[in-house]
Amino acid sequence: MKQHVIVFLPAHNEENAIGEVIKQIPRDFHSSVHVSVLVIDDGSTDRTVEVAKNAGADYIFSFDTNQGLGAAVRKGLSYSLELGADIGVMLDADNEYPAWQLPELLEPLFRGEADYVMGSRFKGTIDGMRLHRRLGNYCFTFLQSLLLQKWIYDGQSGMRVFSKQAMDHGEIIHDYNYAQVLTLNLVRKGFRVKEVPITYQVRSTGESYIKFKAYVTSVLPAILKEMMRPVKKVTIEDDAHVIARISTPAFVAEKSQ
Ligand SMILES: Nc1nc2c(ncn2[C@@H]2O[C@H](COP(=O)(O)OP(=O)(O)OP(=O)(O)O)[C@@H](O)[C@H]2O)c(=O)[nH]1
Ligand SMILES: [Mg+2]
Q1: Quick one: pLDDT at residue 252?
Q2: pLDDT range class, residue 168, cuts 50, 70, 90
Q3: Are 38 and 60 in contact (CB under 8 A)?
């Protein structure tokens, strides 16, 4: 039986970037894997939906009005489950993240080594990130490492893979953002996290939604709130997504056929 991977893209006014992202998502890299694409359109007022459909998106979910990135990712997780996903992948729609590295990010799940995989820019290569953004990333990542007592390299990545259980149990407690609170929630519940190096290139079109003051005043209280909440450990199914006899060379070989 094939595993159904749903790649969902939270998008707000990304008409200039989303088509390219969707076209770059590998669809046929392994005979045991079926990939679909879902767009979570967060009240876009441009041609995001039309461009996404033309580029081959399989499913579109549209919020009537802008809800926020946290709300969009929460919807992406729950709607992917409704659509029958075995594995969910969140990918930014702004063409900063390497969609073509999807197989590498999935591999830890196929090998039974992780339930939650983050593409790590700081373990990989970064092109064009400005100094203040870099420092902000270091600070928020360091805070997560401290709170979890676990070293994390990139806590704000826009490319992440979720096992079915992680999709089901991951909670996002605010609508504004998901990046830190979701990781804190999943790791505290006992999910195994792994970071895979990725290539990152800062956006050349569209607009960043990050505004320093709004980000800090929303994200910091949410981190505190998440850490104060009691969470229940989940009994993890370690090998839920294991593909028999998968190994890096074989995976790569089949991928390139
Ligand atoms: N749901 C939702 N998504 C948004 C919103 N604003 C931006 N996005 C999407 O969220 C993703 C990340 O947004 P960015 O603005 O690039 O944020 P970022 O990547 O953390 O920050 P940058 O470093 O500036 O690129 C993209 O796919 C955007 O389309 C919003 O208001 N709601
Ligand atoms: Mg971005």
Answers
A1: 55
A2: very high
A3: yes
Is residue 221 classed exposed, middle or buried when 0-12, 13-18 and 19+ CB atoms within 10 A define those classes?
A: exposed
The reply to whether 167 falls in a domain is yes
Q: Which residue segment(s) compose the domain that 35 sits in?
A: 3-242
Question: Which tokens is 31 given?
Answer: 């005979």
- Residue 122 Cα, ligand 2 centroid: separation in angstroms? 15
201 pocket-lining for ligand 1 (C-beta < 6 Å)? no
Angle, CA of 181, 183 and 184, to the nearest 5°: 65
pLDDT value at residue 195: 98
User: Does ligand 1 come within 6 angstroms of the Cβ of 66?
Assistant: yes
Classify residue 231: in a domain, yes or no: yes
- Number of structural domains in the chain: 1
215 lines ligand 1 (CB under 6 A): no
The residue whose CB lies within 8 Å of the most ligand 1 atoms, and thus the one to mutate among 45, 69, 202, is: 69
Q: What is the CATH number of the domain that holds 17?
A: 3.90.550.10
Whether the CB of 11 sits within 6 Å of ligand 1? yes
